[in-house]
Structures are given as C-alpha cells and as structure tokens.
Amino acid sequence: MGPLHPHRRQRPLLAALVAALTGAILLGAPAPAALAADPAPTLQPGRAAAEREGRVAARQAPTTAERTTKVRGSIKAADKGVKYRVRWFTKDWTYIDERKVTGGIYSLSLRPGTYYLQFVDLRPAYNVAKYAPTDIKVKVGNRSVQKNVRMKRGAAITGTVRAGGKVAGGAEVVAANAAEQSYRVTANKRGQFALGGLPAGSYSLFTYDRKKQYVGRSTYLAGMRLGQVRNTPITLGTRAGRLLVDLRTTDGTVKEKVFVTAVSKATGQFWTVKARGGEAIFAGLFPGKYRMVAPGVGSYLPQDGAIKGARVKSGKDDLASSFTWTKRGATITGAVIDEEHPDAPMEDVQVLAYAASGGLLGSATTDADGLFTITGAITTQPDVTVKIQPGGNNPPYLQGTFYCKYGTASLPGVSVRTGEDTVVGILALPQLPTAQQDNRSNCGPDATAPRAVPRSPR
C-alpha cells in the first residue's frame, strides 16, 4: 500500500453501552436443564459493545509484515479435557483477538511488547466445577516465551427464582461485580439456576422474569471466594412496569436500529432492547426513574444521561418519555479521483479511517461524484490514517475513465476534533501496474494507448 497525498487541485467536499445483556456471559450449575449461552465473560453496560467493536476493528485494521515472537504455555488444571478460549489484549487492556485452545497447550504469535492474556473455561455456565477466568501478563521480546497458567475453580451461586408466589421458569439471573464484568444464566422450568466459574469478589444479583410481570431489587453477595458455592433463593414480588422512550438527536428522530440500555436509578438493574423507528420499548421494569446508556448514532457520540420524563409505576405503562443525543463526533470529508486521469471522480471507493492504535474509527463509500463523508463516534485525536481502496461489487476492478484494476493508498497524520469537520481534500486512487491489468492499452501507469479525453462530469 503506497502513501497517499492530497491532489494539488483542492475543492470543498463527514460500549458505552450497548446490548450488555446480549453479550454477557452465561454461567450456571447442575440444576436440571438450566440454559446458558456462550460462556465467555463480558463487561457491563457500556463495555460489552466496546469490546465487540474492538474485535471487529482489530480484524479490519491494516496488517503489516512486522516480526512476531512465539508465546506458548501449558494450561494447568485438575479437570482434564476442558476446552478454553484465550483472548489477548494490549498493556492497557485494548482487545486484540482470541482463539480456542484444546489439548491444554496454547501458542500465539505476537509482536514485541507487553500483553495481557485471559483464559476462559468453555464449559456450560451451569457447571459449578467451571474454572474462573484467569489473566496473566506477558512481555514479548525477540525470543520465544513460555508462560504457563493455572486454572482454579470459580465461585458459584445456586438457587430458585419465584415470581408472584410461583416458581419462575426461564428467569434470567445476572451476576455483576465491581470489575464491571457480568455473568448470566437462565433458570430451568422449575426456576432452578446455577452460575459457576465466577471470579472471587462481591456480586449484585439481578433477576429478570421471563414473562416480564414481576421484578425485585438486586441481591448483594459480598466476598465470594474461589471454590465457594452459595445458595441464594430469589423472590420477585413487585409488579413490573413498561417504558416507551422516543429517541432523538438535535437533528430529529433517530431512524436507524440501535441497542440502548435503561438503568434503574433505584436498583442499578439494567434492561437492553433494540430500538426501531425512533422508539425503545422496555418491559419488566422496576418502579422509579431511569437513565439511558446509548451508543453513538450517525455522527453523534455515545451518551449516558437521564431519560426525560421517565417515572415507571408498578404495573403501569409510561409512554411519554424521551432521550436526545446532543454531542456530535468528528467527521472526515474528501473526494477521490483516478490517479491516472485526475479529472475523473471515482465512485464506489471504500474509505476507512484508523486511529493511531490501528482501531477502525469509521468508513464510507464514495458517491457518483467521488465524494465521501466518514461519520461516527470519533473524538479529538491526532495521527489518524485515511485509507482508500477499491470497493463495489468486484474489487479491485472499478469504473474510472476505463474499467481498470486499482490498488490502495493511505494518508497518515490526519488530526480530527470532536464536533468539527476535517477536510482532507482530493485523494488519488492508484491503478495497479499495467502488467497486472486486463486492458493494458488503457490501464496502469504504462498504458500504451494515448490518454482518452476525460469523461464528462455526472
């Protein structure tokens, strides 16, 4: 990928909290037929989405040919045949990637630096023998590193859920700790649940009635120790309410689908839903006032604040509340032309903006005039890299003056500011060498035919 420089002819030309419950870990016990989802620990509201977006960004970040070093080790545990997932993070806990491990030995190829590795037992959440997630720190240099890890049985919570005086089959139980990690499991048809593999610490236990008819305050469990199993009966005795929230920005109604979370000011319990058509409808809520934790939408930044007018009453519907995004992120605008035919704007070029860390900030596709605007939850920062590459239905082919193969280029060192538009000007997309083209007469820097008259602007 070659360097990209703005063309000399300038012209004017754009976690957090989302679905925390969707991504949270399901951990459980030998209660009959207890249900669980993917048993990998996930952060609390605002962090689950960031983690998920980090995974996508890590896989989309530009790759390099930097040297890597092998990091290997044994996973030591009393139980044999257990499958694990290992995740690795930067020294400031920025997510990089993950993979499954079988056979008790892991092997990674990492660039020199300092990393945190996290090992997660993949047995079902309802297994009270499940190991707690274990983190290790590793420094990588020029030589291979061996770093073994020892897994220990986690804490476990068991019990039965009752709602309105009856067993609450299918109730969801979520345990959240001070480290902003949450773990969940679904009770069986007799209301029995078990949540295993928990790290040591204190937990708030939130419970959700499957029928969304009853609700209760959270249960606080202090000082859970590794290997400890604590039985905790749960009773939901308060009639739940519902809340409809109109979602807006300062420009008007939010049209895109978006996950938002309502947090009870009375209990700290949270509910996440997928909003559609500018409306978020929450059911099964505890009475009282609420705040919203919302991701960025369009060019607006993530926001956490009170839901205007929200006051849920037991057994009642609140249909007159609203939440408004008010703070815009940075935008990046520009245009793309054909490097070999500077008067030809390029349509269907993919434009990506990367942070200095390599994380993807946002992307856009050029229109028929070659114009693009990158929007998103982009905050003030230096050293942003703007990359252009063929998009459309058949990359690397694009229709410029001729139908040719195109390469990629990048513009480093772009600085952006929250709430402001950064114009990068006109960027030139290079054609691949003539030797790699199907149409060698008209494509590439060494095309043999005379240059054609530029096509008329659209």
TrEMBL record:
Keywords: Signal
GO function terms (MF aspect): carbohydrate binding
Chain intervals with Low complexity compositional bias: 38-48
Signal peptide from the UniProt entry: 1-36
SUPFAM superfamilies: Cna protein B-type domain (SSF49478), Starch-binding domain-like (SSF49452)
Chain spans, region Disordered: 38-72, 435-458
Protein name: Alpha-amylase
